[in-house]
Amino acid sequence: MEHAGRWIMSTTDAAFARDVLERSRERPVVVAFWSSSCAACLALEPVLARLATEAAGTFLLVTAEASNNSEAAAA
Questions:
Q1: Is 62 exposed, middle or buried, given 0-12, 13-18 or 19+ CB atoms closer than 10 A?
Q2: What is the DSSP string of 40-60?
């Protein structure tokens, strides 16, 4: 789930604190953990992306592939 857009971004374990925690001081952040084997995750992603785009900065959508970001997913 790669995104280009002002209100949608991907994160990693190394960048999670900056991308999610620090940015949440400016606006709400919705974190969507996903897996390529999760049909519900893949179905929900375009809905969240559309809402983030329509909201135009009301919140930031940050996505993280769960198996590649196990520390953030566990936290």
A1: buried
A2: HHHHHHHHHHHHHHHHTTSSE
The Cα 63–Cα 9 span in angstroms is: 6
Task: Say how many C-beta atoms besides its own lie within 10 A of residue 2's C-beta.
Answer: 8
Burial class for 54, CB neighbours closer than 10 Å (0-12, 13-18, 19+): exposed
**pLDDT tens by residue, 7-28:** 999 999 999 999 999 999 999 9
- pTM for the full model? 0.87
Q: Which residues does the chain have with pLDDT short of 70?
A: 1-4
Q: Which two tokens stand for residue 62?
A: 């940050």
Q: Which two tokens stand for residue 52?
A: 């983030």
- ∠ Cα 48 42 70 (to 5°): 90
Amino acid at 16: F
